[in-house]
Structure prediction request, 270 residues.
Amino acid sequence: MVAIRPAQASDLPAISALDARLTGLDKPEYWRDMLAPERNLLVAESDAGKLLGFIAGEVRAWEFGQPAAGWVFAIQIEPKQRERGVASALFEALVARFREKGVTRVRTLVDRKDHLILSFFRAQGMVAGPSLQLDMDLA
Amino acid sequence: MKLQTGTRLGLYAILELARDPERTLSAADLAERFGVSSHHLAKVLRTLAAAGLVRGGRGAAGGYRFTGNRRRTTLMDIVALFEPAPGQRAKEPGEDTDIGAALQRVLLEVDEIAEATLRSISLETMLKPRR
Prediction:
């Protein structure tokens, strides 16, 4: 069974470690900031209380001129626990919170070379949004 | 974005067959469903069979059934069977000029976005009823 609940400070070491293992970048302060009351950091855990994955998001209004929407900032699942619906359960739980806050859209940004995560969000029913992301090298 | 006819027929055929992997459909069945050439579809089905995505097709009226993995096969996998890979395209005249190279960079950006989209959509996602 998978239980979903809001993250607590005591979850941060496991969240940070899982993320560092999967991305190669350690960013504990970033995850600590995700515990702020206006943000949503949810964890999925096993019956034994082991971290299976987490999702982070927040309702933001008027970023880039867009009306309020729920933003998914990050989702990570323990590789050995994939294909069991953990990510879908986390996504649904976050979306339910966004709905409670009265928003009717959810959006995210994905590396276009990251086919795994792109496929996941597609499978949830997400499609290309109204914005195009642009960037430029300043070096 | 315009797909070559073979690509579009390949997508039609694979999606229709993947809808129900137990079901067998011939090129003629599929041609009737989509209102397209059964001759062209027969050729497309042979390509899909060679890729291991469908099986069957003994004789002219032989039926095909889906043998791939709906969750693992993406639209890009099908498109790649019928369209030349970006790297294999013949060099166009003028590409070596500064304007030609700048145009090439823009077209590459468009191609990359299209490929990311096609690669992110599995047959399973495509066949899911829309909410």
In short: The interface with chain B takes residues 112-113, 115, 118-119, 121-123, 125, 128 of chain A (CB under 8 Å). Residues 12 and 32 of chain A are 7 Å apart (CA to CA).
